[in-house]
Amino acid sequence: MSLLTPETxxxxxxxxxxxxxxxxxxxxxxxxxxxxxxxxxxxxxxSLLEAEKARQELANVKQESKKILDEAYQAQxxxxxxxxxxxxxxxEDAKEKASLEAQKILNEAKNQIQNExxxxxxxxxxxxADMSVAISEKLLxxxxxxxxxxxxxxxxxxxxxxxxxx
Amino acid sequence: MFTNEMxxxxxxxxxxxxxxSLPLNAASEKAASEKDINVxxxxxxxxxxxxxxxxxxxxNKPISVPxxxxxxxxxxxxHIFMSSKFEEQxxxxxxxxxxxxxxxxxIVEIDENGKEVRPLDISLTKTxxxxxxxxxxxxxxxxxxxxxxxxxxIFPKKGFVILMEMLIMDIxxxxxxxxxxxxxxxxxxxxxxxxxxxxxxxxxxxxxxFPFGATVTGNIAITLTLALCTLLIVNFSGTKEYWKEIxxxxxxxxxxxxxxxxxxxxxxxxxxxxxxxxxxxxANIVGGHSIVGGLVCLVFxxxxxxxxxxxxxxxxxVIFTVFIDLIELLIAYIQAYIFTMLSAVFIGLARxxxxxxxxxxxxxxxx
Lengths: 166, 367
Fold this sequence. Notes:
The complex is a heterodimer.
Chain A: H1 8-141, H2 147-165
Chain B: H1 2-33, H2 39-47, E1 52-58, E2 61-66, E3 68-73, E4 77-82, H3 85-88, E5 95-97, E6 107-110, E7 116-117, E8 120-121, H4 126-152, H5 159-180, H6 184-206, H7 220-236, H8 240-247, H9 261-301, H10 307-350, H11 359-366
Antiparallel strand pairs in B: 1-2, 3-4, 3-8, 5-6, 6-7
C-alpha cells in the first residue's frame, strides 16, 4: 500500500529540513534556552539559600537583642535591689548614729547635771559652813554669856540649816 | 462566572466544529457531486500526499494551490514546473499522474521500452511543503524564545515564553533527565528538537485549513527519518557494555553457542525499537485523522437516508468529531512525548555502565 511505502522525494525533503532544524536548534536554540533556565534555577537556589541565611541571622540578632534586653532588665533589677539595700542600710546607719548621738548627749547631760548638782552641793556646804562660821562668830561675839541660851540658838540654827539642807 | 465559562467552552466547541468540518467539506462536496460517496477515497485523500494543495471545491471547480514539481528523468534530465500544468494538459513534457496501478496518483513517464516508470521525484508535495513551512515556523518559534531570553535575561516577561518554558522544562526535567541519567545535558537539545518537531507538526495537522492541515507526522517517510535518527544516536552513543549485552548477553551459555539465539534476538532488537517508534507515531496520527474523516463523512453518507436521520447523524457526528478532535489534541502531545521519552530511554539504555564497575581500573589511573 502506498501509505506504508516511504516516498523518496519526501525522504529527501524530510532529511534536508529536519537536518537544518536539528542543526540550528541544537546549535543555537535549545542550549541558549536551557542555559538561561539553568542559570535562573541556580540563581533561585542561591537566593533561597541566602534568604535562609538572612533569616537565621535575623533570628540570631533577635535572640541576641533579647539576651541584651534580658541582661539589661537583670542589671536594672540588681541596681534597684542594691539601691534599696543601700537605702535601708543608710537609714539603719543613720538611726544607729542618731541613737548613739542621742545617748551621748543624754549621758553628757546627765554628767552635767551630776556635776552641777555636785557643784551646787559643794556650794551649799560652803555657804552652810560660811553661815555657821558667821553664826558662830555672831554667837561668839554677842551672846556667849548665857550658856543655855547659846546652846538653844545653836541648835535652832543647825536645825534650820538641816531643814534647809534637806 | 460559571455561565460565562460555559459560554466560552460552547464557543470553543462551535469554533472547533466548524474548523473540523471545513476541509472535509471540500472532499465531500466533490464526492457528493459524483453522486456516490466513496468514504475510503475521501479519507485517503486526507491522509495521503498530493502534488497540489487542495483547499476546497467551489461548485464543480476544485480550488487548490499549485506546488512545484521537481523530477529527474533518466531520458530527459531535470524538470521543474508547477503542478497546475497537469490541470491544463494531462501529459506535460512526457510526465503524467498515474490513474491506477502500482504508481497510482504518482508522477510517471513512459521509458524507451514503453513501460510506465517512476522518475526521480523530489517534488515539493503537500506534505513536503507543510514540512518545510512547519520547520521554518519551529525555527522561528524556538529562536525567538532564545532571543527573548537573551533580551530579558533570566526572568522572561512574555507569557508566551513562559508557556513554552513550561513545556520545555516538562520534557527536560520530567523525561530527558530521568531517562538518560548522567549525560542528559548532551542529548537534551536534540531530544527537545524532536519533541517540538513532532508536537508542532501534529498540531499543525489538526488545524484543518490552508496552510495547515497536512498530516506530516502521519507520513511514513517522516516517521522513518525520525526513527532513523534515534537509531543512529542510540547506537553511536552505545557503551562497551551495551554492545557486550547485545553480542554476549548474560544468559545461559546454550542460548549463545553454538546457535547465537539471544544475540540474534538482541541484534534484531536494535532495529525493532526504532521501528516501533516509526509505526507508533505514523499509526496514531493516521488513525486519528481517519476517524475524524470518517465521522465527518457520516453527515454526507446519511443524506440518502432521509432528513431526520441525516440531521440526527449530523449532530452526532459533530459531537463525536469534537470529542475525537480533543483526543487528537491529546494524542498530538502524547505521541510527541512518547517518541521523545522512548528515544531518551533507548539512549539511556545504550549508555549503560557495567553493573560490576571496573573500580580497580579507575583507581589505578588516579594513582
